[in-house]
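Subject: for your reference before the review

Hello V.,

The reviewers asked for a structural picture of the protein, and I figured it would be easier to keep everything in one thread rather than splitting it across files. Below is the amino acid sequence we used in the manuscript, unchanged from the supplementary table.
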Amino acid sequence: MIERVISSTLRFYAELQKLKNTLAILVAVALPLFVAFLSFVIYLSEGHKLINAGTNPWHGYIYHLQKFWAGLLLPLTIILEASLINSIEHSNNMWKQIYSLPVSKCAVYFYKLLAFIFLNILTAVSLTFFIQLFGFLLIFIRPEFGFDSPSLIKESLLLSLKMMLASSAIIGFQFLLSFNFRSFVIPTVIGFCITVGTGIASSWKHIELLPYSYPSLSTNSPDAQIGNIYIIIALLSLVLTSAAGFYVSSKKEIS
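And here is what came back from the structure prediction:
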């Protein structure tokens, strides 16, 4: 049992080490930084119009930033990261070497997917960190805005994690695409088209039928509760796409 745990840990660690040779970690940190900085600049110049007197400015600051993130940039980040995480094996044609190792083909898929999920957790934590960082900068630069109020760190982190969980369907589907297509372009374009299509259909009364809308829909109730129907459906979708990935991986022939 102990040997199995150690072996699993080492395999997962090996997948994380591969990320150092890609831009995936940079994307996971840089895009949340960009969004948080953009919001900071907007509040710096227009904060007096955005903050209601007598209220905690952190509420609007956190919610509107993360709502924008969930509706557009979170799906695009996942799409880009999914293509990057498999880029080493595809670009260097390393699949033959990987499948020759004494590891089951399903395990190969599982540990890469696990590393991808970790990457998305890193993205959620990075978003929360940069939101708080730039919010605290506003305390010193524009003290009149009232950002010295309670900073709602817990609520911000929970909302980030809620959006990540609601994006599980996107995580599973985009990873499956990038795992099977050697081309970086194909899964990226497919994901981009679905994301744009979902955005165009955002006012559709049956928008809940489109899983790429779940991150945004999950933020409609900006409370501290993690669970909602969109997260449940998204997690079930992740299980189904993972099962499909295990099957495809087990049948994969490398010449």
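For the response letter, the relevant points are probably these. The chain has one domain: 2-250. The mean pLDDT is 84.

Happy to draft the paragraph if you're swamped.

O.
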